[in-house]
Amino acid sequence: MKLVNDFYDYQLLDMANGEKLEKWGDITLVRPDPEVIWPVKSHPELWNNVDAHYHRSNKGGGNWEIFNKKLTNWQIKYRDLTFNLKLMGFKHTGLFPEQAYNWNYLDEVVKPGDKVLNLFAYTGAASVKALSLGASVVHVDSSKGMIDWAKENVKSSGLEDKPIRFLVDDVLKFVKREIRRGNKYDIIILDPPSFGRGSNGEVWDINKDLYELLDLLTELLSDNFKMVLINSYTTGLSKTVLENLLNITINKKVKGTITSDELGIAMNNSNLILPCGVYARLTK
Questions:
Q1: Which of 149, 153, 144 is nearest to 103 (CA)?
Q2: CATH number assigned to the domain comprising residue 265
Q3: Segments forming the whole domain that contains residue 18
Q4: Which residues contact 201 (CB under 8 A, 6 or more apart)?
Q5: Is 243 inside any structural domain?
Q6: Which of 40, 116, 144, 244 is 20 to 30 A removed from 217 (C-alpha atoms)?
Q7: pLDDT tens-place string over residues 14-35
Q8: Spacing of C-alpha 54 from chain mean position
Q9: Per DSSP, which regions of the chain are E strands?
Q10: What is the total count of domains within the chain?
């Protein structure tokens, strides 16, 4: 499992009873997590003073109970990048801190002038990181709200003058158009959801559609191709499945090295680790 050890503005303080206690900069949150199936709190005293607590409903979804009435949007830093956070309707804050492992890996791959395609790009942390390394970025997400948030993250990191295109679009339709246009990319990053809807109501199902998407991406690889990186939080979709998909798609056209692993976050002052999804990448 790959862990992040240098995200100092994020701390996992404790875990118990299906919930995690986290500190995001100066803000302390309690959020549900299905991986936390034990009942014992390691540091019960830390749970007494939190800014907000997300309660999951038995009927689906849930709601935030906010104790800090001044809590709206706030910022945290990761290295030289600044990200904007807020409490979202489904327990999220707009950032997945375990992904800092993959942001760090971009340091080893991205060079000035590289063309990076970020699909299902969410609030754009990977886009911001690639921009900071001198790449030109095409950032695609089906949600205009997420696109606007990504623009805020680019601006707060001081990168608004760097070359990035934001597109509200269905990923499969966008990729097919890029193939017809003859556009190519050196690095492709994708973080597909389990299920989703495109900008015009198109339905995405990772179990049905991920193979087709990866197969199409073989047509977007440049002569300078360096990497395809997949992240997944889909329950039951193992890192080996992602490796298999890369082997029967990208690796058939461009032979490279495939690696995969779990991502995790270590709890403070503990030997406990919270698993946080999987990744697989093919590097040339």
A1: 153
A2: 3.40.50.150
A3: 2-72
A4: none
A5: yes
A6: 144
A7: 999 999 999 999 999 999 999 9
A8: 20
A9: 2-3, 10-16, 19-24, 27-32, 52-56, 62-66, 74-78, 81-85, 115-119, 136-141, 164-168, 187-190, 195-197, 203-205, 227-232, 257-266, 273-283
A10: 2
